[in-house]
């Protein structure tokens, strides 16, 4: 699995779990099953064929800042995830080694010198935040661009 996919999974799956904790509702599948004609028809009665499926409902936007702030509150470490790619990766319990960051840089098509880790790290943080925003994450305004 790619490094960026691991980041997405930790943030987006964590955001879904937090949203589920805040709003305990029936799952969309359970709601659809309960509303289907087959569920309402008596046993053995003929049922109409299911309506063709339209495009799935858009996924709710995950508040990246809220997810990461909540993780930071639970963490025993003081991590500056808003500025540091290393701290962001640590907060997500991912490998933050230089080798892992170089791999992430390669995946995100970093064209700078990977031996200049300070410059690469700043670029990586911005690139990850940009990718999160492009893929359904609500990124705090102060972390955009």
UniProtKB/TrEMBL annotation:
Coiled coil start-end: none
UniProt feature, compositional bias: Low complexity: 25-56
Region entry Disordered, spans: 18-56
Pfam family, one: DUF3597
Ranges where the DUF3597 domain occurs: 5-140
Domain of life: Bacteria
InterPro entries: DUF3597 (IPR022016)
Name of the featured protein: 3-oxoacyl-ACP reductase-like protein
Organism: Kaistia defluvii
């Amino acid at each position: 699995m790619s490094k960026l996919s691991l980041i997405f999974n930790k943030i987006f799956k964590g955001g879904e779990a937090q949203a589920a904790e805040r709003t305990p509702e029936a799952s969309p599948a359970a709601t659809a099953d309960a509303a289907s004609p087959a569920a309402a028809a008596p046993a053995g009665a003929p049922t109409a064929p299911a309506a063709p499926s339209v495009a799935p409902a858009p996924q709710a936007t995950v508040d990246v800042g809220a997810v990461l702030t909540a993780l930071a509150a639970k963490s025993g470490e003081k991590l500056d995830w808003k500025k540091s790619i290393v701290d962001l990766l640590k907060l997500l319990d991912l490998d933050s080694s230089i080798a892992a960051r170089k791999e992430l840089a390669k995946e995100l098509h970093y064209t700078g010198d990977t031996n200049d880790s300070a410059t690469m790290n700043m670029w990586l943080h911005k690139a990850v935040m940009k990718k999160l925003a492009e893929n359904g994450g609500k990124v705090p305004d102060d972390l955009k661009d």
